[in-house]
Structures are given as structure tokens and as C-alpha cells.
Amino acid sequence: MTEIADKIEEQKDAEAKVDSFRKNLGPFVIAAEVTRMAMVFTDAREPTHPLVFANDSFLKLTGYDREDVLGRPFNSLIAPGVSPDTLARIQEAFDGTRDVEPEVHYKRKDGSAFWVSVFITKVHDKNGVVVQHFISLVDLTRYMKEQAHSKMLIDELNHRVKNTLATVQSIAAQALRGASNPEMAREAIESRLFALSCSHDLLTRESWEGAGLFDLVTEALKPFAASSELARRLDISGDNIRVSPKTALALGIALHELATNAAKYGAFSNQSGSIAIKWSLGAHSGEQRLILHWQEKGGPPVVPPTRKGFGSRVLIRGLAHELDAKVELDYAAQGLSCTIDVPLPASAPNE
Amino acid sequence: MLILMGIEDMLAELGCENVTAAPSVARALALIEAQKFDVAMLDANLGGETSNAIADALAARQIPFFFATGYRDLGADIGHQNRQVLNKPFQLPDLERSFREALSPGYNERDFGATNGKTAGGVTR
């Protein structure tokens, strides 16, 4: 029975303190009540730091009612979500033994959690005695989210850089293996890096969410159709279908290899040949597919190569693997043709 | 895809025969069902999917394997955290070391769940 009586006495005491607090601070209380910063005052003469004031922002942030919190020890409001270590640092902040601003994993009344930074300042009376603590809580939810997001972006960037370096490594190795002199190797490396860079530009323009196929083909062929005369001999026709970054990069490389071959040996190596590139969408056993057709004509008579070069390997082996594509390369005498048949997932995953 | 071709060339240089590559988890699992492999190298991330299911299938068949990734680490979704991880880009000697390690006697009997199996230089974890 005495215990209950004590509790009632305690509660009355706390209420009296809250009342006197309101009277003494007048306009400051109104300011503290309406500010958007969550803040409380606690009674420094009690070792448990019971709350004597809590503003609306604090109640909104924590989900408590005013009756829930006034007179309650500060730590009992903080404790559910935090480690003993953090509690110790809060104590240090109260004591003023160390200048700390603990970050607290705060549990709301309904159990949901969020991060806050806790600032604790002493309030002295005219004799210099610490009578209260002023505590403000800064919601860190947005900051934490932004931090997690930027970490994710940095990881992703690092991943792409590493993959790009591995691609460059591969381009250099292939070029050095296939080239008969340093000049050829240099040319092969530079033109492929340039093609890769163009595909990156195209994807960056659309935040790496994909690229339009017409834009992609046009960009890939641009270095090979520099003059208006060559541009007239190039016919690109098809819709600007959206393709995934992975598909865009792979097709960009494939188109570059086909164009390089055309410029060296095919329809763009003489004065009269032409290249027609067209594509359409089809369906095969319920799967949407893109069928892209490359046709050269009017070039020098085509002779099938005696050994498989980098270009044909990229098309037949590389593209087939990377995009699960079916690739047909036909060295017909009247002009080389290539058909690329790629599954086109409805929502292509990023890589 | 150029990376894969580069790796294939490296493997040919190391004297590997019959190199098979799979671009997706589904394709890899079908290949594991269909034929017997001596050793496998897994990209930790296959077009948005992790290769964890492939790792499970290989571990169940006692086929030695290791990971390659362009990320700093494997990522929490992969259960085989203590396997070797080869960081991209890598050089021929690194690739050779990883394969030799994976093919060394007792590799499969090692308890990858408990040990922090740091392997030869150039290969982290």
C-alpha cells in the first residue's frame, strides 16, 4: 500500500514541477512547444532525469501522448531500442563528463524504430546549480537512408569500373594476340575502346536504365559513316525499341565489329557498296525476341576468312553467350549478312 | 562478353579443355545436371541474380568451385562466404592459382562454413 501511495505522491510532485516550469519560463515554453525540433526538459535533481516538459514535435516523433511521458525517467523512454553502451554514453552526456552526442536507435511507442541524435545541455539556476537538462532529438532517418543509398551507389560504381577494366584488359589481350604489328594492335584497341565509350555515353544519358535501339545502331555506325557519301550508302530502319544496358553494350560491340569488317573488307571498303540494317520484334514460344539483320551488298566479292578473327568470335561466341542469342554469319559472295536473334525480356535485369 | 572471351583465352593458355560458360542461373543448373565438371568459376552476380543456387548445386555434387566478382565482397545473399574469391580484373597467374587451389587434394573436404580460408596471394578471403 505504501508503495502505491508513494507513486501517487511522486506523480503529484512531477506535475507540480511541470506547472512551475510552465509559469517560470513563459514565452520560452510557447517557443519550445511550437518548434519543429523535438525537445524535452528533464529534472536534474532526480537521478533518473524525469521529464518535466515535452514539446509537440517530440510527441509526434516518438508516438507518445503527453501523459505517457511527463514524470517518466528519460532513459525509460530511450531504453527499449538501445545497447547498454549507448545508455552509458547518454549518462556521460547528462553528467557532462564527456562531450558526446549519442546516436540512438529509438523505439516509438508502437515499437517502430528510427535513428536520432541526442543533444543534452545543462540548465543552471542563478546560483549555478544544474536544475534541468535541455534535450533535443534530431531525426537521422533521412540521413541514414541517404548514407545507405550513397554506399550502394559507390559499390555499384566500383563494380562497373572493375567490370569495365576487365573488359579493357580483354580488348587489349585480344588485339595484341591478333595483330601482326603494333600499329594494328593500337588501332584495334583504340577503336574498340571508343565504341565502348560511345555505348557508355548513350546509357549514361538515360541513367543506365536502357537505350533505344535506333539510337544505339546510329551511334555505333557513326564513326564508319563520317562522310555524307558513306552515310547515303547506309540504311538503318527500325523502331527505337528499348533494350537493357546489358543488351545495349553487347550489341554495341557486335555492331562495331561488323562495321569494322565492312570498312576493311566489305561493302564500305570500295566506292559503291551499301549496308542495310533493320530489325523487328517477333515471338517464339511465348518469348519476345528481337531479330536484327545486317546485310551488305555491292562490295568486293566476299571470301570466307581462313581463320576465325576477333570479330567473328565476338559475334558467334560472345554475343551468343552474353545475350543467349542465335547468331548466323553468312559469307555469301555477293555480300556478308548477319542475323542476330536475341530474347528480349519484358523487364530486362541490369548488369 | 569480352570478359568471358578473355577468360576463355586465359584458360586455353592454361591448357583447359572443354570450357563451358553459362549466362544465367537456369542455364548453369541445367548444365550441371547434364554433364560432369572438374571445377567451376562463378561470377557472384549473373545479370541481377546471385549465383548462390549454382554454388549450392556444385557443393552438393562435390565439384570444387570459387567465385569471381567485380564487387568488393560477395554480398550477403551468397551462403558460401568462405570460398575463394577472385577479384576482377585479374591476371593469368591469379586465375591459375585459384584453379590450382580449387583442384588441390582435400579442397572439397575443407569446412568452408567455419574456417576463414585465406588462400594464396592475389586471392582474397
Please give the structural blueprint.
The complex is a heterodimer of chains A (351) and B (125).
Chain A: H1 2-25, H2 27-34, E1 38-43, E2 51-54, H3 56-62, H4 66-69, H5 74-78, H6 84-95, E3 103-107, E4 113-124, E5 130-139, H7 141-178, H8 182-205, E6 211-212, H9 213-221, H10 228-232, E7 234-237, E8 242-243, H11 245-264, E9 274-284, E10 287-297, H12 310-323, E11 326-332, E12 335-343
Parallel strand pairs in A: 7-9
Antiparallel strand pairs in A: 1-2, 1-5, 3-4, 4-5, 6-8, 9-10, 10-12, 11-12
Helix pairs in contact in A: 7-8, 8-9, 8-11, 9-11, 11-12
Chain B: H1 2-13, H2 25-34, E1 40-43, E2 45-46, E3 49-50, H3 52-60, E4 65-69, E5 85-87, H4 92-103
Parallel strand pairs in B: 1-4, 4-5
Antiparallel strand pairs in B: 2-3
Helix pairs in contact in B: 2-3
Key attributes of the depicted protein:
heterodimer; A: 351 residues; alpha+beta; 5-stranded antiparallel beta sheet; 5-stranded mixed beta sheet; 12 helices; 48% helix; 24% strand; B: alpha/beta; 3-stranded parallel beta sheet; two-stranded antiparallel ribbon; 4 helices; 13% strand; globular
What's the mean pLDDT score of chain B? 81
Class by SSE composition of chain A = alpha+beta
* Structural class determined from secondary elements of chain B: alpha/beta
Strands of chain A, count: 12
- Quote the distance from N terminus to C terminus of chain A: 70 Å
Explain what the structure shows.
The complex is a heterodimer of chains A (351) and B (125). Chain A has 351 residues and is of the alpha+beta class. Chain A is built from twelve helices and twelve strands. The radius of gyration of chain A is 36 Å and the shape is rod-shaped. In chain B, β2 and β3 form a beta hairpin. In chain B, α2 (25-34) packs parallel to α3. Chain B is of the alpha/beta class. The chains are: A alpha+beta (351), B alpha/beta (125). The A-B interface holds A 155, 158-163, 165-167, 169-171, 173-174, 177, 246, 250, 253, 313-314, 317-319, 321-324, 349-351 and B 1-9, 21, 23-24, 27, 45-49, 69-72, 87-90.
